[in-house]
Amino acid sequence: MALLEQLPQAIFNIIALDLEAGDLATLMLTSHRLNRLASCDELWIEKISADFGDREHIIDVLADAGVDIAELVYQSTDLAPWRRQQLDIETDTDDDDCNGDSSDCSSVIPTMSNRYSYTGLGMCCYRDRFIRVFPRSGDDTVNNIKSSEATLEGVKHMLRDGPRASSDVFAEAAYRLVLVQEYYPNSAECYYLWALICFMLNAFKPSLSFLNIGQSINGDFAPLKELAKEVQSIVAGAYGTGNQVPLLDSAGSGPSAYLAKALAIIFQRLDSDRDGVLNAAELSHMVRQTNGQAPPPAVISQIIGSFGGQVQAKGGRMVQGWNLASLTDFYIAQTLDDPSETRKDLAKFGFDPATLKHA
Question: What range(s) does the EF-hand domain occupy (predicted)?
Answer without folding.
Answer: 258-293
